[in-house]
From TrEMBL, chain A:
Its cofactor is heme b; Cu(2+); heme. GO terms for cellular component: plasma membrane. Belongs to the heme-copper respiratory oxidase family. Residues 531-550 are annotated as: Disordered. It comes from Mesorhizobium sangaii. SUPFAM superfamilies: Cytochrome c oxidase subunit I-like. Its EC number is 7.1.1.9. Heme b 1; low-spin binds at H122, H411. It is a multi-pass membrane protein. NCBIfam families: ccoN. One of its GO terms (biological process) is electron transport coupled proton transport. This is cytochrome-c oxidase.
Automatic annotation (TrEMBL), chain B:
Gene3D superfamilies: 6.10.280.130, Cytochrome c-like domain (1.10.760.10). This is Cbb3-type cytochrome c oxidase subunit. Its main location: membrane. C-type cytochrome. Part of the cbb3-type cytochrome c oxidase complex. Pathway: Energy metabolism; oxidative phosphorylation. GO terms for biological process: oxidative phosphorylation; proton transmembrane transport. Belongs to the CcoP / FixP family. The chain crosses the membrane at residues 32-50. It comes from the Bacteria.
Length: 550, 293
């Protein structure tokens, strides 16, 4: 892979890595006895290891100009592998924390192994590790194909992919050491946040630079969604993480916001992380891999436009529905609730557009588990967005808030939508990247599909039952006007559902392991009739078409 | 718009663009999408008119219904309090014996006390009030500070070794660690104390040791536990002759207790629970007793 880099790119890499190592050293020196010092060491070790890798290929011959006749897929390949590694790590921690809720003794007598530290390792592991790597790997693949242009250079995609994974490692190791900003899904501290901003700006630049050099007159829908994902996540991340560190030698920082403003900023971030990280980005994925696999045109271009702008505009207002019946002023809650309701329409329009695209290809859905993954994802997307809008209605929220119903809703989205569309896309992507005719085993994809579906259904049904039971037990009054149940009785009532949830999660994890094995065997397999469609190449000779995007 | 080709399955034309083999149909947006868009937006607008909705600088649109979550919840709390006052006033006014004698009042005490106990007391005393290591079994009739309802009510109010200014205070000295008694005396007194409950399990049934332990007991323990080792209510010293052990009655546990001392802790509930709630709890705890007074 190093041989593909030009000598200029190799030198640039080494310079950047030396700078990173120096920053890491400064962190380690300034942060002695503080978690930031440990993170400094991690940065130094990672940078120095990469410097050695780069040095080993520094004097390799220049790559031939022929490379420019092919798309640059090496970062996507590594990204797919990292996606599956993070999937297994993140889901393992998910099964662990789920089991911990059912059997509280199932842990070690150590601070790092407490629920409060393991849970963010699970959430960040699956959202940022698994989801984020999948988005980066697929976006590079989709961006090049739909633009008919190669990535602008060969350094920045690596910087984004590996830099992003360094952020994920700093996040996860930080949680074990007790580092947290106490903001859900934004737990990493200020230095990791700054690093992610740098990585993210380069990511956005890759997108803009490639699109600027595109050979297609129009920008494809998938790229609208990927761009919205990158741009809005940058805004959310920067604003919500505004904080003042205690000192440059301490991991701890204090948020720029406090009180109800802090809560509102956090859930403006939190809900739009769901919108633009877990929805917009993955819709981009769906808009490319689903029609590609089905061999069908998108059902309606006009519906795509309505959905895209509807989702992009409406989601921004919805965050306050996380704070119904709190100290948040009621008018903010009203806006959050009403926009959440309107949001259902573009959401269902997206899901409908995906499902209607399958018209004329339903026989393929029956026979091809890869396409079925994506079909099921669209169905779960529709279900989850309906449920989300429903739960945003204040009186419904009065029952569902703080219960496992929320957890079930999130997992219907995370397992049923995000993970299923990712696995479907990856099963399309892997043979294409490694030039294989097909995946190693279609049977194993089928096994993975049913493990994933049954795991999701068990999980979601368990949490619906548990959540509604909880909500009802917390609000049941006896005839004297006092509460019928104590909180601990609702805990006891949840126990069987918590066992079911852990089992559902375990099935989902087993599915991910099956998929990883299948991918590994596909990569290792001999090039079966080295499949390379003649059109899978960027156009070099045409002048860039400067037309407005439509 | 360029005219694309016609899709044989749906009969729609494509937009004429193609990206890596992907085409898009120019299918019109189904009417139902506009219908639901209009419906949801109409609902939103109506809701905005009726409820607090849009910010206007320092204030906001209050809504025609004049509903506000703060006043709503205040009203609900007031109504609920009023509804409950039918019996809460009786609880407040009646004395303990009268309530205990009234089955309809005791039904309320048991229903309400059950939830109050679960939410406030069960974390230490257990959901069945049977206690656990370090926490007394409330069903066994142990009376550290006295078992009458008034005393229990006072214990609930001020707690034990708590931060309340009137807290009950109780401290067992660390006889072993502080060198008040030597290790042989420690073993002897442990043997003696364990023999009082009548459950010597053979390991420490040496009569000489028990006899020696009695002397140690007389010199060191009777100030709090009394000559007869039946405990003293005013200092919260437990009865050592019954077979109930707060910290465990096995050799190891009793040795640890005498060696390192004990200082149990119970929070005070004066600020967290109302006087009515504490009275209900005192009655409820009494009703749990499985042994006659």
């Amino acid at each position: 892979m190093l041989a593909q880099l030009t000598s200029g790119e190799r030198q640039l890499s080494i310079v950047v890595l030396i700078l990173m190592a120096m920053v890491g050293l400064a962190m380690a020196a300034a942060g002695r006895g503080d978690p930031i010092g440990v993170h400094g060491f991690i940065v130094v070790v990672a940078s120095v290891a990469m410097i050695f890798v780069m040095l080993s290929g520094l004097y390799a011959p220049e790559p031939s100009a022929e490379r420019l006749d092919h798309y640059y897929d090496d970062p996507s390949k590594v990204g797919v592998i990292l996606t599956m590694i993070w999937a297994m790590v993140g889901m393992f921690f998910g099964v662990w924390v789920a089991s911990l809720l059912a059997w509280p003794d199932l842990t070690f007598d150590a601070a790092w192994a407490s629920f409060g530290r393991l849970r963010p390792v699970h959430t960040s592991g699956v959202i940022f590790g698994f989801g984020g790597n999948a988005l980066i790997a697929t976006s590079f693949h989709v961006l090049q194909r739909t633009s008919r242009a190669r990535l602008p250079d060969q350094f920045s995609p690596w910087f984004v992919l590996l830099g992003y994974n360094l952020f994920c490692v700093l996040a996860a190791t930080g949680y074990f050491m007790g580092v947290t900003q106490s903001k859900e899904y934004a737990e990493p501290e200020w230095y990791a946040d700054i690093w992610l901003v740098i990585v993210w700006v380069v990511y956005f630049a890759i997108y803009i630079r490639t699109l600027a050099r595109r050979k297609e007159p129009h920008i494809y829908v998938a790229n609208w969604y990927y761009m919205a994902f990158i741009l809005v996540v940058a805004i959310l991340h920067i604003v919500n993480n505004l904080a003042v560190p205690v000192s440059f030698g301490h991991a701890k920082s204090y948020s720029a916001f406090s009180g109800v403003q802090d809560a509102m900023t956090q859930w403006w971030y939190g809900h739009n992380a769901v919108a633009f990280f877990l929805t917009s980005g993955f819709l981009g994925m769906m808009y490319y891999y689903l029609p590609k696999r089905a061999g069908r045109p998108i059902y309606s271009y006009r519906l795509s436009i309505i959905s895209f702008w509807g989702i992009t505009f409406m989601y921004m207002w919805a965050g306050s529905h996380h704070l119904h019946y709190t100290a948040l002023p009621e008018w903010v809650q009203t806006l959050g609730m009403t926009f959440s309701l309107v949001l259902l329409v573009p959401s269902w329009a997206s899901a409908g557009n995906a499902l209607a695209t399958l018209n004329g290809a339903w026989h393929k859905v029956r026979d091809d588990a890869t396409l079925r993954f994506m079909m099921a994802a669209a169905v779960f997307y529709g279900l989850t967005t309906f449920e989300g809008s429903f739960m945003a209605i204040r009186p419904v929220n009065a029952l569902s808030h703080y219960t496992d119903w929320t957890v079930g809703h999130v997992h219907a989205g995370a397992l049923g939508w995000v993970a299923l569309i990712t696995f479907g896309s990856i099963y399309c992507l892997v043979p294409a990247l490694w030039k294989r005719e097909r995946m190693y085993s279609a049977k194993l994809i089928e096994v993975h599909f049913w493990l994933a579906i049954s795991g999701t259904v068990i999980y979601v049904f368990a949490m619906w039952n548990s959540g509604i039971l909880q909500g009802l037990m917390w609000r049941t009054y006896n005839e004297n006007g006092t509460l019928t149940y104590s909180f601990i009785e609702s805990m006891v009532a949840m126990h069987p559902y918590y066992i079911a949830r852990a089992f559902g999660g375990l099935l989902f994890l087993l599915g991910a392991i099956t998929g990883s094995y299948n991918i590994l065997m596909t990569i290792r397999g001999h090039s079966q009739a080295a499949l390379q469609p003649s059109d899978d190449a960027p156009q070099r000779n045409l002048a860039p078409v400067a037309q407005p995007a439509e | 718009m360029e005219i694309g080709e016609r899709d044989p399955v749906t009969g729609q034309v494509t937009t004429g663009h193609e990206w890596n083999g992907i085409k898009e149909l120019y299918t019109p947006v189904p009417r139902i999408v506009f219908f639901f868009l209009a419906t949801t937006i109409l609902f939103a607008v109506c809701y905005w008119v009726l409820m607090p909705a849009w910010p206007l600088g320092k204030t906001y649109t209050k809504g025609l219904l004049g509903i506000d979550q703060k006043t709503s919840v205040d009203r609900l709390v007031k109504d609920a309090t009023l509804e409950r006052s039918a019996w809460t006033q009786k609880i407040d006014q009646m004395d303990f014996a009268a309530i205990q004698a009234d089955p309809s009042m005791m039904k309320i005490v048991e229903e309400t006390g059950h939830t109050l106990f679960g939410d406030n007391c069960a974390a230490c005393h257990g959901t069945k009030a049977t206690g656990g290591p370090g926490f007394p079994n409330l069903t066994a009739g142990i009376r550290l500070w006295g078992g009458d309802p008034k005393t229990i009510l006072e214990t609930l109010r001020v707690g034990i070794n708590s931060t309340h200014p009137d807290t009950r205070t109780s401290q067992m000295l660390a006889f072993g660690r502080d060198g008040v008694i030597d290790s042989k005396q420690l073993a002897d007194v442990v043997a003696y104390v364990r023999s009082l409950g009548g459950t010597t399990d053979g390991l420490d049934a040496d009569p000489q040791s028990i006899a020696a332990g009695q002397d140690v007991f007389k010199q060191n323990c009777i100030a709090c536990h009394g000559d007869d080792a039946k405990g003293k209510r005013d200092v919260g010293a437990p009865d050592l002759t019954d077979n109930n052990w707060i910290y465990g009655g096995d050799l190891q546990s009793v040795t640890t207790t005498v060696y390192g001392g004990r200082q149990g802790y119970m929070p005070h509930w004066e600020q967290r629970l109302s006087a009515t709630q504490r009275k209900i709890l005192a009655l409820y705890v009494l009703s749990l007793r499985k042994v006659p007074q």
